[in-house]
Write a structure and sequence with these properties.
Length: 368
Amino acid sequence: MHWDPWPPYVPVAERRARARRAMNRLRKQGRTIEPVTIEGRRITHTFWGDAWCEHLMGFASLANRLERGRTYVRNGSVCHLEIDTGTVRALVMGNELYQVELGVKPLAKARWAAIRRRCAGDVGSLMDLLQGRLSAAVMGVVTDRDAGLFPAPQEFRPQCSCPDYVDVCKHVAAVFYAVGARLDTRPELLFRLRGVDHLALVDDDADAVAALTARGGGARLDEADLADVFGIELAGDEDAQAPGGDTATTRGRGTRARRAAGAGRGGKARGRKARPRAAPADRAEPVAGGGRGTSLPDPVEARHVRALRERLGISRAELARLLDMSAAAVGVWERRVEPLALQPASRDALERVWRMSRAAARRALRRR
């Protein structure tokens, strides 16, 4: 008797029904399922998704195999896809439910350092990064075929539980395309996949941004936009206290009044000589940096943010991930001379992290 190792063909409608039942079972077990849904004929629609697919199709060793997965990803066979550091895990419904794992080598440190150098110093690109967008110039750097973030074919290690033992079966090919579709909406996952933090692209410029907001000089950026980016009210805040006790608004009105009075007396201001602005008092008392059962100080100051990071043993980029904001914004907080006039959402996020233990912070970072 001839034994056929291949199961009989299953129509697409039946595969979809099986996929729904299988995913419902996994959801009942507590699994979070993230399917890949393709709308229309095009698999990708943005620069990130298109660039991922075009990069892979540019390699002959992959291009002749990837086409096998286009139909699979279009008809919804990729039931679940998760992208983590160095790994893509997926569930693909074929004749059966197959497990696909796509290993990716981490990005070399020297290569990442070169990318950071090429992206540094561009204020426009910095703001795009802070707001979740990347300029065309920065995207051109990180998607460079030879020196960018996208992996080469030899950096992939694909595995599939199906009986087709070629390196890139149709289920693996479907996952390749599914990654491109996911990057359409979450391009930061490309950085996570390569083991680097996209917020590090702005870390190098954090000092410059902090100086810009402190001095108010150089390039004039809209204060409302900056307040949203950094999670604090900047110079325009009526309640922000200026050094010496006056509010910024009152200080501005007083300066204009003195100038007007001086102009009325021949253009020279008279009266007592202005005393030099007092330097902020040196606060030497230790700061605990929060913990379970403690409350966030009011007002919050830069030293509290620094103490929190020290207590949790985390970097600026890691604290930014816990707060769902940028590392540059955390850098602005840590360099702020005045108390932080936190926006409500930023204060709630900082309050949540303030009460975390070091172990809880590490668990939260692993989930992100």
